[in-house]
Design a protein that fits this description.
With 66 residues, the protein is of the alpha+beta class. It has 2 helices and 3 strands; from the N terminus they run E-E-H-H-E. The chain has one domain. Pfam families: DUF4170.
Amino acid sequence: MIKRYWVIGGEYEDAAFGHLIPGTETMSGPFDDEHKARTEWTRLSCCPEKSRCATIRYSIAAETLH
């Protein structure tokens, strides 16, 4: 069983994180291992221009390939 990892997210309408603002969606990947995905998550989440905005959120999603 092979896993691939994706970093997904963007800027949300409010701090409830229910709806992304159209056009801000981001998807990075696939990554072969979780460490590489976590590095990308850190880059996206902690960059100075984005870290000032409390409504930007990214997550790591795993995909299992058969």
